[in-house]
Recover the amino acids of this structure.
């Protein structure tokens, strides 16, 4: 359904022309450069929503309400959906022709939009209609790669099973992108069902604080307050507090309190808001029972910026005190200097900017942090956040990441010199050691430091170490399943424990369980391409030709989608199309997908080519190599001296 057009703007219905593109909303198709590209229906609704208000700024909140009306997602879904639309349209975020980003306000369609008259009936001599991309209409022979015909409950006796080839980058980057929306390829997915937990009276969900300022310029502070209070309450013995990912899932969504409490498995909800009043901040908080709505406690604070850290502690202490007389552990609080207040504010702004996964906002986050550190050079948290920003930059925006890796490493070490207990700095160093240096000993050492300081933050890194070390094939399997089950209880709307459990089950040989878990992850985070790629691997192992056939219906637009197409065509026995898809993967992703290209060559039996690409992946510091030990595609290379030498270089 189309939105109402504003006065003076023509009504849009049927087919549209947007700039050089022809758009058919009824068929979810875009015609570009003589080719027809199939869009996911929600992506088409997003485009139509922008087109009906062409020239106007459409806020993220309006897009969420219009396009994701009945789905619980976060603003990151909008950011990623727009980024995907730009890719399909051939647009450039820095020099846009179609969709312009209006910082902190929303998006604006700047290309001319007009309704297109229905085409006249073709005459006998008329040219045939424009064909859809040939990937969508091809024969289906037998698969080219043999896989077990049945699901095993343990590892098959003669081969290792498909592992992950995710191009890692910072684990934090995955978290930032985990709620993206699928653009041009989807599979049928079930609704996510959070793990069942016992609801205790001493449990509370912290809902996202609302920014009530006129121009929403305090959203970063509202998000920061939410996260800091969750962290503080998480340290209260006996109090159950769902983690931040699940709480922030409900940001800007109209979901009633009882439903939120049911999903989170809590008896109480803490709500809050922040606004500017003169030179001060007004923070309003309320703690209520979820079943009755009875307000247990409420408080309004009017404070200066220097008091914000103390106020966070006061709010958390009051909540703990009102839930079964629990006590917040004593934390020494010292008066913050103006420069430290500015640095703390910069950390919150940077987290907010980095959550969008956009190049320009990554640069802005770095500028904000560097400016604050020039005036507060001993503020460890800001150094750690700056390290995370440079690590994120190296993973996602750098063709040659060596410089940003070196900078991130130095900044994290600076943070630890200032504060040896800085968990975020240890996390950055753990990620660099594991995925860039290929140093599992150093990675495990940093994970151990995080585990000692903050077990919740160490869980994911520790489970990944178990999986990719190959230990999941032996005694670590039950530990990984147990740990991820616990994470699902503590953070029921976080997709990460679901896809990690899917990966562990997949490596172990439990394909049915792996598919169940990965579909939960996709339902929670439908646009994450790695999750879709893992599903493609599982379907490949299960010989699910129907779902694999569906993956060949759309034009590839990303590394993981291109690799999935190669697998799908190989499983369907469509060798010519598999070769074409592999050439396309090599053409577009030689610099950032060497590991996946090596996998595809190995899968087709071209082992020398596979080995060459593995060596190239090593030179590129391709983080996919971390999974090489559990990757079945390289089993035939296991006795190759070049492969053995590479395993030694990777300390496997």
């Amino acid at each position: 359904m189309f939105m109402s057009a504003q006065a003076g703007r023509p009504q849009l219905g049927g087919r549209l022309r947007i700039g050089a593109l022809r758009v058919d909303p009824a068929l979810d198709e875009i015609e570009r450069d003589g080719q027809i590209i199939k869009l996911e229906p929600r992506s088409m609704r997003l485009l139509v929503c922008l087109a009906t208000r062409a020239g106007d700024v459409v806020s993220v909140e309006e897009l969420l309400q219009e396009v994701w009306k009945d789905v619980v997602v976060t603003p990151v879904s909008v950011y990623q959906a727009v980024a995907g639309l730009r890719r399909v349209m051939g647009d450039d975020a820095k020099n846009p022709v179609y969709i312009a980003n209006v910082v902190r306000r929303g998006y604006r369609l700047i290309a001319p939009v007009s309704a297109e008259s229905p085409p006249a009936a073709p005459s006998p001599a008329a040219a045939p209609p424009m064909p859809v991309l040939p990937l969508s209409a091809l024969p289906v022979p037998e698969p080219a790669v043999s896989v077990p015909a049945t699901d095993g409950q343990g590892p098959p006796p003669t081969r290792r099973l498909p592992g992950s080839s995710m191009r890692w980058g910072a684990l934090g980057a995955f978290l930032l992108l985990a709620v993206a929306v699928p653009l041009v390829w989807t599979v049928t997915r079930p609704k996510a069902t959070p793990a069942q937990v016992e609801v205790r009276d001493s449990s509370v969900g912290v809902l996202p604080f609302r920014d009530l300022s006129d121009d929403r310029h305090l959203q970063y502070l509202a998000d920061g307050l939410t996260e800091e209070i969750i962290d503080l309450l998480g340290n209260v013995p006996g109090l159950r507090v769902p983690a931040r990912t699940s709480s922030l899932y409900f940001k800007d969504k109209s979901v009633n309190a009882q439903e939120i409490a049911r999903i989170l498995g809590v008896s109480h909800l803490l709500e809050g808001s922040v606004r500017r009043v003169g030179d001060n901040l007004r923070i309003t908080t309320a703690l209520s029972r979820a079943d009755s709505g009875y307000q247990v406690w409420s408080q309004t604070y009017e404070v200066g910026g220097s008091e914000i850290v103390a106020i966070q502690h006061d709010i958390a202490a009051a909540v703990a005190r009102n839930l079964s007389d629990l006590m917040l552990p004593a934390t020494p609080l010292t008066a913050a200097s103006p420069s430290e207040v500015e640095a703390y504010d910069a950390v919150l702004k940077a987290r907010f900017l980095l959550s969008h996964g956009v190049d320009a906002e990554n640069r802005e986050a770095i500028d904000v942090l560097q400016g604050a550190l020039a005036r507060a050079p001993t503020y460890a948290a800001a150094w750690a956040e700056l390290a995370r920003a440079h690590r994120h930059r190296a993973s996602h925006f750098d063709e040659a990441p060596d410089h940003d890796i070196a900078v991130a490493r130095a900044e994290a070490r600076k943070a630890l010199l200032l504060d040896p207990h800085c968990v975020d700095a240890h996390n950055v160093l753990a990620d660099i050691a594991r995925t860039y240096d290929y140093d599992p000993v150093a990675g495990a050492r940093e994970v151990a430091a995080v585990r000692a300081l903050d077990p919740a933050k160490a869980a994911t890194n520790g489970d990944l170490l178990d999986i990719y070390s190959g230990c999941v094939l032996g005694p670590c399997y039950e530990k990984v399943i147990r740990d991820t089950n616990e994470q699902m209880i503590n953070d029921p709307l976080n997709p990460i424990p679901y896809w990690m459990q899917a990966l562990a089950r997949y490596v172990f040989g439990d394909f049915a369980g792996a598919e169940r878990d990965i579909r939960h992850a996709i339902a929670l985070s439908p646009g994450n391409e790695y999750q879709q790629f893992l599903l493609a691997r599982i379907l490949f192992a299960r010989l699910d030709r129907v779902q694999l056939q569906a993956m060949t219906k759309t034009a590839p637009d990303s590394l993981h989608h291109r690799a999935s197409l190669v697998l799908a065509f190989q499983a369907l026995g469509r060798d010519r199309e598999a070769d074409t898809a592999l050439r396309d993967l090599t053409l577009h992703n030689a610099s950032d997908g060497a590991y996946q290209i090596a996998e595809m060559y190995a899968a087709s039996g071209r082992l020398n080519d596979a080995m060459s690409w593995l060596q190239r992946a090593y030179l590129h510091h391709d983080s996919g190599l971390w999974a090489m030990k559990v990757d079945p595609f390289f089993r035939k290379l296991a006795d190759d001296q070049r492969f053995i030498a590479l395993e030694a270089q990777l300390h496997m």
Notes: Residues 338-354 form the longest helix (17 residues). The two ends are 55 Å apart (CA to CA). Confidence is low (pLDDT under 50) at residues 1-10, 119-195, 331-335.
